[in-house]
Amino acid sequence: MSNSFPVLCIVILVMDTIRRDLEGRVPWTLLYVNNVKLPFTTQEELQRQPVSVFLYEYMLGKSKEAEIKRINKELANIRSKFKGDKALDGYSKKKYVCKLLFIFLLGHDIDFGHMEAVNLLSSNKYTEKQIGYLFISVLVNSNSDLIRLINNAIKNDLSSRNPTFMNLALHCIANVGSREMAEAFAAEVPRILVAGDTMDSVKQSAALCLLRLNRTSPDLIPMGEWTSRVVHLLNDQHLGVVTAATSLIITLAQKNPDDFKTSVSLAVARLSRIVTSASTDLQDYTYYFVAAPWLSVKLLRLLQCYPPPEDAAIRGRLTECLETILNKAQEPPKSKKVQHSNAKNAVLFEAISLIIHHDSEPTLLVRACNQLGQFLQHRETNLRYLALESMCMLASSEFSHEAVKTHIETVINALKTERDVSVRQRAVDLLYAMCDRSNAKQIVAEMLSYLETADYSIREEIVLKVAILAEKYAVDYTWYVDTILNLIRIAGDYVSEEVWYRVIQIVINRDDVQGYAAKTVFEALQAPACHENLVKVGGYILGEFGNLIAGDPRSSPLIQFNLLHSKFHLCSVPTRALLLSAYVKFINLFPEVKGTIQEVLRADSQLRNADVELQQRAVEYLRLSCIASTDILATVLEEMPPFPERESSILAKLKKKKGSGTVSDMEDSRKERSTNVNGSNDHIVANTNVKVTTSPSSDLLGLGHTQAAALNSASPPVTSNAASLLVDVFTESLPVVPPTSIIEENFSRFVCKNNGVLYENQLLQIGLKSEFRQNLVIGLSGVFPGVSVQSCFYVTAASIVSLMAHSQLNIHTTPADPVVDGGAQLQQVFNIECLLDFVEAPVLSVHFRYGGSMQNISIRLPITLNKFFQPTEMTSQEFFQRWKQLGAPQQEVQKIFKAKHSMDTEVTKAKIIGFGTALLDGVDPNPSNFVGAGVIHTKTIQVGCLLRLEPNTQAQASCSMYRLTLRTSRDTVSQRLCDLLSDQF
Amino acid sequence: MMRFLLLFSRQGKLRLQKWFLPLPEREKKKIIRDMVAMVLARKPRTCNFLHWRDLKIVYKRYASLYFCCGLEEQDNELLALEVLHRYVELLDKYFGNVCELDIIFNFEKAYFILDEFLMGGEIQETSKLSISKSIEASDMLQEVRGSVQAPYQSYQSQAASKKAIT
């Protein structure tokens, strides 16, 4: 193909030129484009095309270096022309700007010519203006200094009343769409859109231009009386106008559903007219015998912004439309062309989406399912792909779940025979979605066998899915254990830590499966080559439950130990560490192998291992086994207690991988008995109370998962129609689901400090900086790292940070740029004024779009009463004078509490200063006591506070005590401050 | 909403790029690289849809050119295929048996036609008739105003020797 084209071309060209040459009329030129030649009939004709002359020369360049040389020469030439004394006429200016554009599109950087392009905008020659606008829409980025000049030119064109010029200007606004432009034209564009005398084509441009501005700067678009007139554009005569207006209304309706409610009945009416029209009625809006497919799809999409219509008549009419669309799918095609079938099915799929969205008409749902079932076996790959995708959605509806299940054989077949990996991927998704107790065994078996040949890129995901399904639908836990071990055997490299942690958790928590698990891992370990993950699982399980199979002479303690130890030298350090822990557990379980194991631990390769962790374990375990009595050993090396129930870490991982709705939809019904596994290999060690490592708190990893889970579970179920990339800032009506929980974990850390990281997870990090200047000013900065290891997920974060209203606090926010790209930073400043003392801290909610769905995070913002302190310096005398004045019993609060941290004078001082009061030195007669004073500023009153902290150093170091006394002029303040501060030591 | 539209050749040379939302230059380059690599690696007779990050990618090959666009989650893939097809039809109608060379030599026309058809990532006008009318009108405008620019018809004599896209 690639060869035949130029060859054929050249032959024809050569013949052509020879003939012309013989005729002897005109000179000819050959153009080289890559390796294709194209003749111009005359030199003159060639030169009339401003770019072509250059193209011609450019194409003659044979190598990359020659090309760059040629281009640099040309750039220098253009630069000199632009800088030259002689003013260029419009034509040459256009020519050079056009050349620059061409060079840019070839992939070279252009850093000049913008000014000339802007000049072209004010030309009254259409082509010059047009090239100017093209250059600007391709090359001017949104924060250029030229925006003001460009805006002026646009303003002129918008008021020119020449529809062609107006269209050019509107296109330019839509193409650049910066904030400055939005500011300049946000009022003008809606006016043009609804003005009675605007031409249809301009209306179309204005509608889409407004849509574009609304996406990037929604806060700037004034809502008003024009909105109702926009809705009525749905009735317009001109179908092009209706199409453009529908796109606009969809976007606006997602933000303000109530304002555009009336569009539902109009959309249904319009749709019904299109659906019932004969294919010739709509003239040029009929596309390959399908009546207005684009408009139909848009209308169906608009209806998906709303619940099913309440009015029975409208509802009936809509049902009729949907039935007609479903009926049409059964009719023989009016054309054999793929365009016909694509357009027709596009409407059909959109109708099915609407049916699924409404999820209220069982008959329609079942019909939709049957239709998709037909597509599953269609010869068009595209349709099979889409059918699998849509069916995933149907599977989650209770009405159609059973109907979807009937197609299981077809889907399994697709998994086996489909040649296209992306189709197979959809088949896996659908199997996952349609799985329930009745077919779990079959589906898991099929997925396992597919895993052996699956594409490497999707293996990890399949592994997670198999692990989840096996756990969720396990009636018989021996099946579960078999499945996971199979999983490790088939795709050990793709079995992430979460998966094997999980199987261990489950085995530990369920007595009935422990013996079977021990027997199975023992058998699996006998394979000559087994995956390291299997060794880990095997080591752990035999270490805990090896005794359950020790009665069998084929798996006697010694055989078990030798089997494990035969793998030891092949394993990585963490696995070896785990095996050492298993060995020490063996010493407890089987006193008869104690000698053998001690021998192993005593070997130089263990005791003098270069790895500190291994060496330490070997030394300590050996020592423990030598000195401890059997009773102590039995206590220390006791069986692990059941794990606490938490959300499955695997599920969190899958959600993290997918990021979007497909998984989370299915989780709603899930009532998981779930526990989480600690992240380290130190379970055994942790239990033995032998301090072996400086390992982080064993809960750390688990905590991370909970955060991720909290984040993900907060995402609304199907935000298919939720605002897409760009979301409004601070809109109250944004369709977000209230978060399930408010995160407070770092709250107390901020009582005595003002800066730091407030919250962090895989997606974002929120930092806090606060400062008291009459009002409290806090700045928040969110960083969206957005990139995760090895999975293609992506935070296109438009984010919203808002503070919920608070009764005692007056909160002012400064709007921030709402669009944040992955990796970028968003800053948000709040000004907070305290009206009256308070206990409840405000909640910060962060919404952003991540992987297709809206995410909410709510965090208790550490705005505590003490943030409004102003320190007061005073002498000893003053202090005690006031102290006595505040002597009323309700004004004093005293608390005696145990120290949580060791007593360090400097740290304590820093905390008191951080708390906001002044630290008064030399006031208290006892130098080891701390006293502080300050005034809390609220809008209504000012509350003076005195505090005194008395450490009791006489008490034992292990339980040193403090006595904290607070005296303020207001009893509630005393109580609150005492609570806050006593938590800090 | 369509996020971007790219046209590239089988050799991976970019012929046209249109971004419907502003992106930093680096990001654009990365997307182009990813798209070209992904789409060119696809085997024949596989489906025209892909998932990439949180976007749906729809592509179709016309002769030596790949048309490739990125859609958001809720967009209709099949219809996007027809958007690509309609664009090819429009180019074809304007250039007469359009080929890759037309798009190279008259890139500005290719952009103008696209602007008439799509705006802000949404369909502006679906009628072939209306679009060609407005393109013709603007071509007329430049002739009337006395521009020296030659009409594209100069290429049409070579139509026979060109391999058309459609």
From TrEMBL, chain A:
TM regions (residue ranges): none
Biological process annotations from GO: clathrin-dependent endocytosis; intracellular protein transport
Record key words, sorted: Cell membrane, Coated pit, Endocytosis, Membrane, Protein transport, Transport
Subcellular location: Cell membrane; Membrane, Coated pit
Residue span(s) of domain Clathrin adaptor alpha/beta/gamma-adaptin appendage Ig-like subdomain: 748-862
A Gene Ontology term for the protein's cellular component: AP-2 adaptor complex
Annotated positions binding a 1,2-diacyl-sn-glycero-3-phospho-(1D-myo-inositol-3,4,5-trisphosphate): K81, Y91, K95, Y96, V97, C98, K99
InterPro entries, A to Z: Adaptor_Complx_Large_Subunit, AP2_complex_asu, ARM-like, ARM-type_fold, Clathrin/coatomer_adapt-like_N, Clathrin_a-adaptin_app_sub_C, Clathrin_a/b/g-adaptin_app_Ig, Clathrin_app_Ig-like_sf
Gene3D superfamilies reported for this sequence: 2.60.40.1230, Leucine-rich Repeat Variant, TATA-Binding Protein
Range of residues in the leader sequence: none
Chain's role: Component of the adaptor protein complex 2 (AP-2). Adaptor protein complexes function in protein transport via transport vesicles in different membrane traffic pathways. Adaptor protein complexes are vesicle coat components and appear to be involved in cargo selection and vesicle formation. AP-2 is involved in clathrin-dependent endocytosis in which cargo proteins are incorporated into vesicles surrounded by clathrin (clathrin-coated vesicles, CCVs) which are destined for fusion with the early endosome.
Family: Belongs to the adaptor complexes large subunit family.
Protein name: AP-2 complex subunit alpha
Source species: Electrophorus voltai
Automatic annotation (TrEMBL), chain B:
Annotated Pfam families: Clat_adaptor_s
Predominant location: membrane
Entry-linked CDD domains: AP1_sigma
UniProt KW keywords: Coated pit, Cytoplasmic vesicle, Golgi apparatus, Membrane, Protein transport, Transport
Protein topology in the membrane: Peripheral membrane protein
Domain AP complex mu/sigma subunit residue range list: 1-140
Keyword Transport: yes
Subcellular location: Cytoplasmic vesicle membrane; Golgi apparatus; Membrane, Clathrin-coated pit
SUPFAM superfamilies: SNARE-like
One of the protein's GO biological processes: intracellular protein transport
Record-level Gene Ontology MF annotations: clathrin adaptor activity
Protein transport listed as a keyword: yes
GO CC annotation, single: AP-1 adaptor complex
Subunit relationships: Adaptor protein complex 1 (AP-1) is a heterotetramer composed of two large adaptins (gamma-type subunit AP1G1 and beta-type subunit AP1B1), a medium adaptin (mu-type subunit AP1M1 or AP1M2) and a small adaptin (sigma-type subunit AP1S1 or AP1S2 or AP1S3).
Name of the featured protein: AP complex subunit sigma
Organism: Electrophorus voltai
